[in-house]
Amino acid sequence: MIALKKMGHLVFLPLLILSFLISTSSAEFTSKVGINYGQLGDNLPSPSKSVELIKSLKAKLVKIYDTNPKILNSLKHTNIKVSIMLPNELISNISSNQTLSDLWVRSNVQPFYPHTKIRYLLVGNEIISSTDNKTWYNLVPAMRKIKSSLKAHGIHKVKVGTSCAMDVLESSYPPSNGTFRADISGRVIKPMLQFLNKTRSFFFLDAYPYFPWSSDPTKIKLDYALFESKDFTYTDPGSGLVYTNLFDQMVDAVIFAMKRLGYPGIRVWIAETGWPNGGDFDQIGCNIYNAATYNRNIVKKLTSESGTPARPGKVLPSFIFSLYNENQKPGPGTERHFGLLYPNGSKIYEIDLSGETQVWEYKKPLPKPTNDEKYKGKIWCVVAKGANSSEVGAALSYACSQGNKTCDPVQPGGKCYKPDSPIWHASYAFSSYWAQFKKVGGTCYFNGLATQTIKDPSYGSCKFPGVTL
């Protein structure tokens, strides 16, 4: 837009200079791909080492989930643009207290700016997905307070936003039917879009094709989710737009939803996207081959500035999730396997976030996928190798406290009491708990103390409950 306004004043300049100025202007809002730098691991490299690794991936942007001073100091004078985050738990207080907002900016942004190129500040992470609705209504007021605080401190180059998952939509199929949920549309999303539009900020979207594909792999082709579809396209009956991949469908559903509320022009920034390189036995398609294929292809797409069918040719800036496999992330195994790097800094697979390396130029062969179809058989949940024995006792107590005779067989005289060992008893309790509660959200995790196995741990007359898939 700026280049177009200035074009009338540049018309008499030599064509080469004009071309250079236009390309330089557009380069400020570019197709560079960034990386999400999470810290939920107890074995991760130091911030200074991590910054060197980020450079080795040729990432030009990095997003962190806090304002860690060691990380921000390590990013000084690096020319890497940075996105920081206000923690979810501070949103409610800051939403009604400008003084507190000013203090937070003075303590967490001003000491590093401008030597660290902080350019984006996200107020919370997936607030509308993860917190009660009281916090939802505090979100936009907090965003306004933070923006005012930045201005008051002379910080004008930082865009304020918040990250949203796809569950902000109540309808996403077909994309032209994209609609925000009724419970947030009027009181949360519309004021947020008004703020983003006024401040020329972005709708920061977390878009993972892995999740809709893995929840319905018979209806959605894997190749369509991986940008590998050669013979299948989807035509939106409402818009007539033709889609060649699932990612574009997801992004355009949000674009149509914003248009439906009267904001057709707000730019989208992909705050998170990626594919898991591993996971649990009951999770499909999470492997190195698919992760490398997806991330290499998404980088190729994003750096080509192809846009989406609803916005062809429009730059879609992005952050890939994530830098490391993080061993302390809760939830299913995939949550701990989204990294491009192992915690020791080595690459899980070759990737170049600049997009300069062509897919065929990667030399190291990828391991063949072994779980692209759902596992069929029985799975048990046992104590993980190397689990902290002092923590196992508390987890055992938790599993046994859930009732339903979860731990009766490991009580004195029970069929699974011997060997009389906390690890043995905990393995039985974990498996029993998981077998009973998996259908209602129970996981085989226990703060990292548990792992799935397809080897039956039963011994003698002691039969471990398991999950049959």
Describe this structure in words.
By secondary structure, the chain is α/β, with parallel strands linked by helices. The chain folds into three domains: 1-30; 31-361, Glycosidases (TIM Barrel, Alpha-Beta Barrel); 378-468, Methane Monooxygenase Hydroxylase, Chain G, domain 1 (Up-down Bundle), CATH 1.20.58. 35% of the residues lie in helices and 15% in strands. The chain contains 15 helices and 17 strands. Strands 1-2-3-4-5-8-11-14 form an eight-stranded parallel beta barrel. A three-stranded antiparallel sheet has the order 16-15-17. A two-stranded antiparallel sheet has the order 6-7. Helix 6 (98-108) packs across helix 8 (133-152). The chain is globular, with a radius of gyration of 24 Å. The model is unreliable at 1-28 (pLDDT under 50).
Write a brief caption for the model:
This protein is α/β, with parallel strands linked by helices and 469 residues long. It is built from 15 helices and 17 strands.
Shape: globular
Range of helix content? 25-40%
CATH level-4 homologous superfamily of the largest domain:
Glycosidases
> So how many helices?
15
**Total beta strand runs:** 17
Q: What is the CATH topology classification name of the largest domain?
A: TIM Barrel
Q: What is the percentage of strand-forming residues?
A: 5-15%
Q: Would you tell me the overall average pLDDT? A: 93
Query: Which residues form runs of ≥5 with pLDDT under 50?
Result: 1-28
| CATH architecture annotation of the largest domain | Alpha-Beta Barrel
Structural class: alpha/beta
Using the CA coordinates, give the radius of gyration: 24 Å
Cα end-to-end separation: 55 Å
Spatial strand order of the main sheet: 1-2-3-4-5-8-11-14
Q: What is the domain total for the residues? A: 3
CATH class value of the largest domain = Alpha Beta
Question: Quick one: biggest sheet?
Answer: 8 strands, parallel, barrel
